[in-house]
Write a structure and sequence with these properties.
With 582 residues, the protein is of the alpha/beta class. The protein has two domains: 224 residues, 3-Layer(aba) Sandwich (Aldehyde Dehydrogenase, Chain A, domain 1); 194 residues, Aldehyde Dehydrogenase, Chain A, domain 2, CATH 3.40.309. Helix content is 43%, strand content 16%. The protein is built from 22 helices and 21 strands. The strands form four sheets. Strands 1-2-3-21-17-16-9-10-15-14-12 form an eleven-stranded mixed beta sheet, sandwiched between helices. Helix 13 packs across helix 14. The longest helix has 30 residues. The radius of gyration is 23 Å and the shape is globular.
């Protein structure tokens, strides 16, 4: 079966509908006002920007419960359920995390002239250095116990260059800022605001943020959370569909564009929709000539390194992978879409059965994102023997696993198309031994699986210490062409912690954009990030609070948000008590 590689989600990108005269006049006015304020923004110093971010944190915390309640209604969650806690963490908490990380960098810029990264700095294969970015402070050592993160730089960039190019915007301020259009995603509630913060504070532009129609209902909460920036005239937030997105993207007052969505969204913006857009893409004749950065889709792999796992380890990793799949009902660009296993691993079936058993205990969720049923149907048509787990009635979607995908059928839909629903797949590679498997998995992920955004490696401590398998895993981390890699921890943490750089592996051109270009997050303001690597323990005890199987997630996430908004040692016992209580 021939398939078109890529993601399938297109919303708010650019279409044939026209924007009415009154709406054009309103948008023109907003952009003119932003352009007028752009020179003012360029002159706002780092200390004043830190103060603005501190208010963003306070205002977001103040509106968090109302924001979360609205999101839970939209997605069909109970506020006090584990799903409600997950939504509070990802939909609100990750915005606070980025705002706090950027605030600390602004304070460093004001006092010592650059954001102070914690290190260590290590030399890596291929003429690269990595910079340790987590834990960044004493609180991180408690909140992210056992977890570390590093940003790998492009080849040839040494530490002296890292320091010389870090936060260049603040070393050599622009005379005036440009106007950036941020086309927000429709799945995770924090994505649009986070992208806006990145454009404002990391890249120095004023921003018009257009909400995805799926998230239109969140605009009032975003405006309250970022009131300091809206009131200052540095940020405007608008609603609208594809026609509004197209009008803004081609507007003369918009200097740059950032989009979180799919490769199809990018192509509609850059080349235009329909057959005419496809023809322009084939000729590499874009309809716009302004810079476009983007975080797009991915068939995210999880490579399971074979080992002798205990029953406890199998059950833990089953809960871990199940959490990756069910988070946000599977509507994430970082949801795992293919589990890569070793065909000769004697525990392969045991692990997959354990995963299915965990999924059977997790209630299915509303398929709230448009087009989910149609996307799922494409996969089921190709793989009618897929495992369906749980209730799929009344707008809900059963957890779905396509098992035994043939890895030699390189055009299989499971390897080429981001499902963007509650579906994942599994494929088994033949290899002589675990080390050989790891080497083959790297080639498979780099050359066959579509996209370059993020992936995870799972390997037990015995495999990591093995004289053949351990070095193969370290080679894999160096050689995998993904923007973020999780080692024994879901790669989503690279998005969450904000001090890493989140985006596709560099190198995609606009006619084959795949997972995108550029990064967001990157709170230490590095100029040349290549990839981020987050490492964690193979098994954490107790389970992390963000596991979908944690019945106390809502309580823990409320305590975590309160701590994130106002970190202090006296708040820490409350958070730890919530997290550790059985």
């Amino acid at each position: 079966m021939a398939v078109t590689r890529g993601a399938q989600v297109v919303a708010g990108a650019g279409g044939p509908d026209e924007v009415g005269a009154a709406e054009r006049e309103r948008l023109d006015g907003l952009l003119a006002a932003l352009a007028d304020r752009a020179p003012v923004w360029a002159r706002v110093d780092a200390a004043a920007r830190a103060t603005l971010l501190a208010r963003v944190v306070r205002d977001t915390a103040a509106v968090a419960e109302e924001w979360n309640a609205a999101a839970c209604v939209a997605k069909g969650y109970e506020v006090d359920s584990p799903e409600g806690g997950e939504e509070l963490f990802s939909g609100v908490g990750t915005l606070v995390t980025l705002a706090q990380a950027l605030r600390r960098s602004m304070e460093d810029l004001a006092t010592v002239g650059r954001p102070r990264y914690p290190g260590p700095v290590r030399h890596r294969p291929g003429g690269r250095v990595s910079i340790g970015v987590l834990p960044a402070n004493a609180f991180d050592r408690v909140l992210y116990a056992g977890i570390s993160a590093e940003v790998w730089m492009e080849p040839g960039v040494d530490e002296a260059t890292v320091r010389a190019t870090q936060a260049a915007l603040y070393r050599h301020p622009l005379e005036e800022a440009g106007v950036a259009l941020v086309l927000g995603a429709g799945n995770v509630a924090s994505l649009g605001p986070r992208d806006a913060l990145h454009k404002l504070f990391a890249e120095g532009q004023v921003v018009i943020l257009k909400a995805n129609p799926v998230n239109d209902y969140l605009v009032p909460y975003w405006e309250r959370a970022m009131a300091a920036l809206v009131e200052g005239g540095f940020l405007a937030i608008v609603r609208g569909g594809a026609a509004v997105g197209s009008y803004l993207a081609t507007h003369a007052l918009v200097d740059e564009i950032h989009v979180t969505g799919s490769d199809k969204t990018h192509d509609a913006i850059v080349f235009g929709p329909g057959e005419a857009g496809s023809a322009r893409k084939a000729l590499d004749q874009p309809r716009i000539d302004k810079p476009v950065s983007c975080e797009l889709g991915n068939v995210s792999p999880v490579v399971v390194v074979p080992g002798e796992w205990s029953r406890r380890e199998i059950e833990y990793q089953a809960r871990h992978v199940a959490t990756m799949l069910v988070n946000n009902a599977g509507f994430n660009c970082l949801t795992p879409r293919v589990l890569v296993t070793h065909a000769r691993w004697r525990q392969r079936e045991e692990f997959l059965d354990a995963l299915s058993s965990v999924l059977a205990t997790i209630p299915t969720r509303r398929a709230y994102y448009p087009g989910a049923a149609d996307r799922r149907a494409i996969f089921l048509a190709a793989h009618p023997d897929a495992w369906e787990i749980g209730d799929g009635g009344e707008g809900r979607m059963a957890w779905t696993i396509v098992r035994d995908v043939d890895p030699t059928v390189v055009d299989d839909v499971c390897l080429n198309v981001e499902a963007f629903c509650a579906l994942t797949s599994e494929t088994a590679l033949d290899a002589a031994d675990p080390a050989d498997f790891v080497d083959r998995a790297v080639t498979f992920c780099n050359e066959v699986v579509w996209g370059s955004l993020s992936m995870t490696l799972l390997a037990d401590p015995r495999s990591m210490a093995d004289p053949r398998t351990g070095p193969a895993i370290e080679r894999a981390i160096a050689d995998l062409r993904y923007g973020s890699i999780g080692v024994n921890v879901w790669h989503a943490l690279s998005f969450v912690v904000a001090t890493t750089a989140w985006g596709a592996y560099p190198g995609h051109d606009r006619t084959d954009i795949q997972s995108g270009r550029g990064v967001v997050g990157n709170a230490f303001l590095f100029a040349n990030p290549q990839k981020s690597v987050v490492r964690g323990p193979f098994v954490s005890r107790p389970d992390p609070a963000w596991f979908a199987t944690n019945p106390r997630a809502a309580t823990v996430m409320r305590a975590l948000l309160a701590f994130q908004a106002s970190p202090s040692w006296w708040r820490l016992p409350v958070l730890l008590a919530a997290a550790l209580r059985p």
